[in-house]
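Morning. Coffee machine broken again, so started the prediction first thing and wrote up yesterday's gels while waiting. Chain of 152 residues, entered below exactly as on the submission form.
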Amino acid sequence: MKTYEIINHTADIGLKVFGKNLEALFLNAAQAMFEIILEKTEKESLFKKQESKKFLLNKQGSNLEEIFVFWLSELLYLFNSEGLIMNKADIHKLDSNCIQAEIIGRIFNTDLERIKTEIKAVTYHELEVKKTERGYEAKTERGYEAKVIFDV
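Came back before lunch.
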């Protein structure tokens, strides 16, 4: 199932992300961002111990676009400061005024992956988060779509 596509953008990287609901849209955007940043160098092994961490995120905002940028910016910050690569997020509340989530992830391991693209920031340039009439994938039900540009 197609959850995102990369948009060509002069000197930066853009994404168009899709989700059947807001939660799926936010989770798909996070996964896409980490796929841009990281490249696997070795297959994961069940026998390799991987350190993991948990973080709580609680942010108020004035609109859905602001919440979307905060979400991705916070995940980028956690990656840069803690080495956290989000594996899972339990989004407890998400609307145009706030997001509350528990983020669970593993710690960046140079034995398993390398940094492919360094993202400096999530921008508001050309930012768009909207409900779509044409739906998600099957084009039969409504869905959500977002466009975001990363400063690289």
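The chain has one domain: 4-40+51-151. Going to sketch it on the whiteboard this afternoon.
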